[in-house]
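Let us practice reading a record.
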Amino acid sequence: MEAPVEQQLASVETEIGTWALKPLLDRGVNEDELRKVLDNETNRKDPLPVRLQQKNKKGSSATGLFQFTERTANWLGTSTKKIAKMSLPEQVLLYKKYLEKWGWKKDTPLAMMQAAPAYANKPDDFIVYTKQSNPEEYEKNLAWVPLDKKGKRIEGAPITAGSIKAYYDR
């Protein structure tokens, strides 16, 4: 008996995705960790479709699979407009460039490279920002606020390296 179409398409996407991710995997990036970053950045809950032109839903300039902002895109020598037109392999190569420019090493969590690369090697209790210290960034990134045992955000809790990692690990 043949597998349902959704399963067939999901397996094809996985094969294509693994092939397209090869430049990062060859550099030592953990595939599971990378897929968690991709899924969280594009708000993917299902295996289809790959959203190459994904725009940030909270109104920032972030675009593409890795949600590069205009500022980061410019730092990488491109723009979010160009990223929106890039293929999957092109966006992967851009992310590889991003990791290289930040000096990423295999033991550095991708979650931190994605969210707060300047603090990538800080301990889990390191405070990245608080509601008081950087209200604008705090509000844009409420998903990184730590959760209580019931899975609810702890109102006003600081965003830490550990809470960012936990978000990407969900």
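A brief commentary: The first strand starts at residue 127 and ends at 129.
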